[in-house]
Amino acid sequence: MLEVRSLRAGYGAIEVLRGVDLAVGAGEIVALLGSNGAGKSTLNNNVSGLYRPFGGTITFDGQAIAGAPSMRIVDAGLVQVPEGRRVFPNLSVRENLELGSYRRGRAARAKNLEHVLAVFPRLNERLAQLAGTLSGGEQQMLAIGRGLMSEPRLLILDEPSLGLSPLLVEEMFALIGRLNRDGLAILLVEQNVVQSLAIAHRAYVLENGRIALSGAAAELAEHPELRKSYLGH
Ligand code: ATP
Predict the structure, then answer these.
(1) CB of 14 closer than 6 A to ligand 1?
(2) Which stretch of DSSP H or E encloses residue 186?
(3) Global pTM value
(4) Distance (Å, rounded) from C-alpha 97 to C-alpha 113?
(5) SS3 147
(6) Which helix (H) or strand (E) holds 143?
(7) Which residue of 16, 81, 151, 170 pairs with 147 in a disulfide if CB–CB is 3.0 to 4.6 A?
(8) Coil, helix or strand at residue 225
(9) Cα 73 to Cα 69: distance, rounded to the nearest angstrom
(10) pLDDT tens figures, 182-204
(11) β-pairing verdict for 210-216 and 63-64
(12) Distance between Cα 38 and ligand 1 center (Å)
């Protein structure tokens, strides 16, 4: 579905990504790992059209999307859920969700809302509540719910477990597994190496703007270099 080839990208004169190759196939969970500042967000922001790459190609279902307007990329079915809690705090849960489907008709919006509320019953109980008053975990669910409202086929999740309690982290990973089993392809950007490798099919490790390691998640979980760098043993 998603193919990134020889991607070079950065900010002004600074090149952050220095030739990155990465792919996500239909039905896959692919983990993108890497330490702080490795370039994970830069990769996401270029894939989702927020920035125009310096070079290389990005295709989604065979269509070139590098530098395309974000709206067109979302319409094609590639949706990024931003890191942390970037919901609109002064809008209600319902309004936040409906924004995810604002380009669809009323009927599609209602159908999508029904689907998202079935996935997140907690949001259903809080539809009229202002998003800014939700707990951190609920805001994270809302951000993912809003992404689902756009009818994605590939969802990019940027650190969905960030700031969650251990129990909610478990729940979040279980949810990601469920969404994937329902047919969604997922690019999972995470610092939580052990749990990400446990649910991913494949993984890439980004270091200093280059892919340092890649392969089947189960094999990477045993990789001595990865264990040493990210798990300390
Ligand atoms: P983290 O896990 O900490 O979020 P990351 O892997 O997502 O890190 P990026 O956010 O992609 O890393 O940052 C990669 C490099 O690009 C960093 O050195 C960062 O300072 C730099 N950078 C990020 N955004 C900008 C920007 N808007 N302007 C200039 N430099 C930037």
Answers:
(1) yes
(2) strand 185-189
(3) 0.93
(4) 7
(5) helix
(6) helix 136-148
(7) 81
(8) helix
(9) 7
(10) 999 999 999 889 999 999 999 99
(11) unpaired
(12) 7
